[in-house]
Amino acid sequence: PLIYAAYGDKYLIESFSVVFDHLINQRATVGDLYRYLQEYSKVPSPPSLFEYILRTPAKQLRS
């Protein structure tokens, strides 16, 4: 299980839930999360990190 504290931030709770479900459905690993961060840091004008994760298939990062 994953435990996190949102400290009453309803937007964070809702948006993280969507991203978490997306990552589970993609069978993302900790390594995939690391690659997401690596690739995200290279994007010149990136969307939010959550949007980037939702738009980028984990499988794409593995190739």
Number of domains: 1
Mean pLDDT over the residues: 90
Helix-strand string: HHHH
Strand content: under 5%
Shape: globular
Number of DSSP strands?
A: 0
User: What are the segments in which pLDDT stays under 50 over at least 5 consecutive residues?
Assistant: none
Structural class: mainly alpha
* Count of alpha/pi helices: 4
Distance between the termini: 28 Å
Major β-sheet, in short? Answer: none
Cα radius of gyration in angstroms: 12 Å
Q: Tell me the helix content.
A: 55-70%
Overview features:
mainly alpha, 60% helix, 63 residues
Structure description:
The protein has 63 residues and is mainly α. It has one domain (10-61). It contains 4 helices and no strands. The protein has helices at 10-25, 30-40, 49-55, 58-61. Helix 1 packs parallel to helix 3 (49-55). It is globular. The termini are far apart. The relative contact order is 0.16. The model has no long low-confidence stretch (mean pLDDT 90).
Produce a short descriptive summary:
The chain is mainly alpha-helical and 63 residues long. It has helices at 10-25, 30-40, 49-55, 58-61. It has 4 helices and no strands.
Secondary structure layout:
Layout: H1 10-25, H2 30-40, H3 49-55, H4 58-61
